[in-house]
Amino acid sequence: MPTDISCDCKKCARLPPFLRYISRDLARKHLRKNGPALLVPARAIESDGTASSSAPQSSSNRLPTMPDDDLEPFDLPDSTEFDDPGTRNEDGPPQLHNGRPAFIERENVSTTPAPAPDDRYEEVIMPPCPDYGRDDPFDDDVAPIVPPAFTRGEPTAVRLAYLQAVYNNVFCNIPVSTTTDNLNMTLNALDAAGALPLVPPPVRTLTSAKKHLGIDPDAWIIPYTVCPRCWKLYTPHETENLASPACLYPGCVGTLYTESKDAKGRSKRRAVKILPQVSLLQSLRRMVRRKGFRKLVRDSRGAARNMDDDDFVMKDMHDGSLWHE
């Protein structure tokens, strides 16, 4: 296991002895960068007759270390000044505490008092639930719950043609162009047989077929516009109706979107930063409308209420009092 040695570079020579010990590799780097320290003064050699040999030598080229008596007082930066007893002061080097400098031991000691235990419990009052009805501002930003193929009254044969096209593309890995051609061939066959209605006219692309069946995942994602400076959110409906790309938050100078024009000359707004989200209310509505979902919901009409006393332990959401409301 490697041991630390005393560094003999010029920079480390100014440090107290207990701070000179570093690894051998780092000591070699210090010598190359800072140069070796001064040799032992002549008066120290004359007094002893020979150079001090108490310190072990790692190699024949290693220079002798300077005696501790010739070192100047250790200077720390102002950030390490401490006024507490047992630490460094302006009169000299840092004092030792249990063989270590006291200011090193104080680095990891937290002086923040521990917070008092909070044993107060207050009743949780649920805020009033907003009425999300037809005037829901988010309804314009998400797809309808019922697929358009059913709300438009398209016949079963047309819906099966849509489903076959989506199946061939997703599960059979047929390219989009080939799938679109097959969809048009199926619709033309229905038209020749007199089973294709004129109203409503069927769609003839794969992307539109997914939307009409309600299985387009992108239709349920709401791309909120995010201000890159203050992170204020804007719905797509709000973004389209903004008078300027400047953020509406007071004091914010962020830009929300950039404007461009397509091939037809129509102006399009592209958000600088978006946050994709899925509407929780719309997701719950879709789940409730699934076949057999009602059988999965627990019927708590005959269960006891207000069981939230001190000795009762809640094990499920059905134990809460709000579940019965």
Comma- or semicolon-separated keywords:
3 domains, 10% strand, single chain, alpha+beta, 11 helices, 3-stranded antiparallel sheet, two-stranded antiparallel sheet, 325 residues
Summarize the structure.
With 325 residues, the protein is an alpha+beta fold. The chain contains 11 helices and 9 strands.
Describe this structure in words.
- A hairpin with a 5-residue loop joins strand 7 and strand 8.
- The protein is an alpha+beta fold and 325 residues long.
- It folds into three domains: 101 residues, no CATH class; 77 residues, no CATH class; 106 residues, no CATH class.
- The strands form four sheets. A three-stranded antiparallel beta sheet has the order 6-5-9. The chain has a two-stranded antiparallel ribbon with strand order 1-2. It has a two-stranded antiparallel sheet with strand order 3-4.
- The longest helix is centred in the middle third of the chain and has 17 residues.
- It contains eleven helices and nine strands.
Mass-distribution shape? extended
- Could you give the distance between the termini? 69 Å
Topology order in helix (H) and strand (E) letters: EHEHHEEHHHHHEEHEEEHH
> What is the topology, as strand order, of the major beta sheet?
6-5-9
Number of self-contained structural domains: 3
Number of H/I helices:
11
Low-pLDDT ranges: 42-61, 63-109, 130-138
Total number of beta strands:
9
Measured by DSSP, the beta-strand proportion falls in: 5-15%
Helical residue percent? 25-40%
Mean pLDDT: 74
Structural class: alpha+beta
Instruction: Give the radius of gyration.
Output: 39 Å
Describe the sheet with the most strands: 3 strands, antiparallel
Region (Disordered): 42-122
Biased composition (Acidic residues): 67-84
Biased composition (Low complexity): 51-60
